[in-house]
Sequence to fold (383 residues):
Amino acid sequence: MNKFLSMFLAGALGGLVTLGTAKLLEKPADLSANQPPLAKQVFYKTPPAGFDFTKAAEKSMPAVVHIKASESREAAASRQRREQENDPIRRFFGGDFFNDQQRSGSGSGVIYTSDGYILTNNHVVEFADEFEVTLHDNREFKARVVGKDANTDMAVLKIDAENLPAIELGNSDDVQVGQWALAVGNPFDLASTVTAGIISAKSRDINIIKGKAAQSPIESFLQTDAAVNPGNSGGALVDMDGELIGINSAIATPTGVFAGYAFAIPVNLVKRIADDLIKYGEYRRGYLGVDIAPMDSKLADRLQIPYNQGVAVVNVYADGSAAIAGVQAKDVITKVNGRNVTTTSELLELIARSKAGENVLLNVLRDGKPKEISVKLKPRAQD
Fold:
């Protein structure tokens, strides 16, 4: 992982400048024709549509919660025993020598359904077994984990409550680079904080979800410059209509705090994962069964194929979904279900939004010639 990229229980306090309707001062009557005109002063009144963030904040803030995650005494003792068994130095000195303590942390969450399902990040909850959720109206609830997925950094909690202010879902496919976005969460335990920025990139892969638990990570982040800090993780990224477009997950930083770049899991992928976690307790995704690489002129030369924008199939696994459907190495995938793909992260996200057993339609170029292939996705092969 790049040393400048760090994942945190995620924005910071931020200023907001609103623009308004201009009123121009009239030119003074005694202005000489030989003199340059005076600078015109502009007075700002009410903000025009598109720059007033108050409605989006008012709509989304009640759906964002604070999550306190902690490790029970029993869980901490069990973890310490496992660590001592696997570490001869710890085994020799004992846990007391290392001042082992119960772990705790905090983050944010988003109310997904009115009956108490809450979206958050896996890294907010993965170490803990006790959870306390505080709503925007300061009500507190004990929560339990319904499901979590390390490969996407998503998790779902459940509290026993009804008639909650669930977030309204947007469409991350419609999000455009340059549009305004608000990050809503609880940075540094500062409840109900809203920051503003723009979407600065889509389908960003920063190679941050990895490790033993994440064997097949999916990264296709929305990148934003809305301030996101530790404590914002699991909180909402919303558009100007106050609709959820992403779940804040990570920041790129050399210091551990916001340095200009934050990353959110797009809501269209979030919904797919959350629905599985709620229904099955796990994310049941389908796999193509290929190794892929982004196309560029060097790769085209190496594979000895014509250069085309898309994603190159470098290897096809025997008995995998793609192999059964007739996909071949050196094919260049240009579309999935009619949507253009130019990066590996775009391809991974679109496949990840389909279930095992479903068909996806691939548009590929083979030897420079277009071809359509319907692929029935299989689940990941079990070892």
Residues 174 and 212 are 34 Å apart (CA to CA).
